[in-house]
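User: quick one
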Amino acid sequence: MRPIELSNVTKVFNHPMKVWQKIESVKNLTFSMEQGEIIGFVGHNGAGKTTTIKMIMGFISQTSGTISVFGQNPGDRVTKHKIGFLPERPYFYSQLTSMELLKYFGGLSGIKGSVIRSRAESVLKRVGLYDAKDRRLSSYSKGMLQRIGLAQALIHDPELVIMDEPMSGLDPLGRHEVMEIIRSLKHEGKSVLFSSHILNDIENLSDRVLIIDHGHLKYFGKIADFVRPSHVRYTIEFATPEPMTETIFLLFPGVKIVSDRYLLECSDISDFNSKITDIVKRGFMVYNAKADYPSLEEIVFNTSGEEK
Amino acid sequence: MSRILGVAYYTFIEMIRDKVLYLLLFFAIFIIAIGIGITQMTIGSELDIISDIGLGTIEIFSTVLSIFMGISLVRKELKEKTLHPLLARPISRAEYIIGKFCGMSLMIVVEIALMAVIFAILLLIYGGAGRFITFIPAFYTIFLQTMTVIAAAVLCSTLTEQAVAAMLTISFYIVGATSYNLVYAITKRSSELTIRVVNTLRYILPDFSHFNIKDNLVYSVGLDQLSLGFATIYALLWVAIILSVAVALFNVKEIH
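Assistant: Done. Structure below.
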């Protein structure tokens, strides 16, 4: 049974001011998640990430298409036992302590009273909040609230963890710790769907990446497969035994001078190979020849709006 | 059931710590000031007046608190999105609404009990401590009325924004508090058709006169035991109807 399956899911909202206008937030979104994998969910603000997550959680219903969570409709009570959820910018009951919050949510998730305290303590240690367990949440910083959000998502040992911007508000150390927790969830065989603006995190953690833009699916698959040959940047750095700048500019249009060397960019792998051969044949000295693979961030931001 | 109790318990804890009980301080100051004022202005029937005003003040304070709590709790959860991690749990929306209602009702019980203690101290000061025991049924009917108002506030807060929800709930209270006298006044001097319409409306609109027993107790008119039973059934019926509508609407509400 797949943890999540979406087929042609569309969500249309009424315009808040102009009732005759509709806003298509998500359009024909199709993807499925395998047990034990981590999917990173990428998109600009307003791309439809949070709307998709809310539909999966059953907070809002889809206008068309089908959503299945462990083979059931979203919001099914039995299925909710298997899901841990961290909302974007989590707020909790400010007058409760983190221990009370975990007891409350753990109890609602069916954890027995006799084990709930030890379970809560273990989760609080895992997210680094054990020492603050008896402090009210009103005194917590944004980063601490993010951590308690993660703790409440894990209190009932769910099979699937859905996190909307889990790194938001965390300092670099906090981000690293959350990344380690996500990795450890994978080792425990859990499935994780998380959205993030920090694409480096997605790149480091995800088995597959889901990219949406203006509600449309741009790409779903492995990150390595997302990188097309045209995304790779080929460069050759060389020098000549004696000054011959004018000749070099004639031979290699577009060449740049960087300190006392020339830097030549090639359009693709065959151009790269032929230019290296030419440079070597002419007796010039090659200092560096490399193929740079861009980060996910560079590709996503450079191809925004372009159909992938 | 345990999930409803869980929501009720933590709703109660959250409210107790949220300085809601500060309202009691205002109650204490207000009722003591009334006591001092009355003893300086009247001769003879101070205790009757203090009792009347004391019970009336408890009713007003608990109504204000119930409107304030009812409209803010659910609306606040929707606005601040504390609802999302809660509804991600294996809990139905009906259990959430009923749990919230029970937590708020428990809070009102505590609030009325504490106001009753302050009121008892005032009676003791003015030599009327013995009267307190006769007022216990009045505290109970104030609770029944307040419970009905809480249910209305919860319904309104699931429907609309806080300010509109407050106005709707206050309107509900005003209709409930005045419908009996209004119907009485209209049926005295209207046409037969109007009387029929008004009499029909009487069964549809809330009528809080069923909860108003304080005059009977203060002026020792006597209390029909059946009226307490009827008031209980009347309140429970209203609460059941209002909460059923609230649950039905909340079940289809999109939680953004």
